[in-house]
Amino acid sequence: MMDKKDIIYNMKTYGFCIIENYWDKEQCDMALNQFLNLPRDVFETGQGGDLRCQFTNSHCRSAFDFLKDEFIQDIAKEYSRCHVADRVVGGIVHFNPEQEIDSGGGWHVDSKIEAQFKSFMYLTDVGPDNGPFIFVQKSKALAEDLPMYSNNRISQETIDEKFDSSDIIEITGGAGTCVLADSTYVHRGKQIQSGTRCTFTTYFYE
Ligand SMILES: [Fe+2]
Asked: How far does the centroid of ligand 1 lie from the alpha carbon of residue 72, in Å?
């Protein structure tokens, strides 16, 4: 496992950090079992057509554990003022041939504040086809001045024009991969082309 110092270094240098095998298969299966058995009415449809359960931590023990994860909270504290773990949003991105679905509704920044820490847990294996998180490293400096439309969304044309493709990182990983990211950098969930992606996302505020 990476130590805290390396994680903070990655966060400060690139805006994100990937910790593989943060949860083992058993933890992921248990979380999925709890999460996928929640009643349909706790879910809402997100901006990208995905399904979201706000405060999954109130419904699932495993999401509660992710919210209260001390190691991640310590990193959040060291990274930014935005370090109070507020809630876990459980997300399901499921392929539907009749609809374009992603998590988040395309390229965007969550906010334009100094820094916003967020942690993600992949509960399923996430490959290039089932909606990986895509993050634009080095995008922080430019983010504030990019043309945006509804709710801090950014067009594909702007991305192509302003960023080098080598800085656009598609984050794939097995179930149990934990992704820490500063969501004031440009990011999106890739449009899903097959299968299902399930995640827990912890939102942190000042
Ligand atoms: Fe976002």
From this structure: 18
Give me the phi and psi of 58, to 5 degrees please.
-85, -15
Q: 109 CA distance to ligand 1 centroid (A)? A: 6
Q: What is the whole-number distance in angstroms between the Cα of residue 64 and the centre of ligand 1?
A: 21
Calculate how far, in angstroms, residue 201's C-alpha sits from the geometric centre of ligand 1: 10
Cα dihedral across residues 38, 42, 46, 48: positive or negative:
positive
User: Each residue of 64-87: pLDDT tens digit?
Assistant: 999 999 999 999 999 999 999 999
Enter the pTM of the model: 0.97
**How large is the average pLDDT for residues 103-122?**
95
CB 192, CB 95: distance < 8 Å: yes
CA atoms within 13 A on the CB side of 160: 3
Q: Where are the domains of the chain?
A: 23-205
Distance 29 CA to ligand 1 centre (A): 25
Which string of b and e fits 62-97 if b means at least 16 CB within 10 Å?
bbbbbbebeebbebbeebbebbebebbbbbbbbbee
**How close is the Cα of 106 to the center of ligand 1, in Å?**
9
- Which is the CATH superfamily of the domain at 23-205? q2cbj1_9rhob like domain (2.60.120.620)
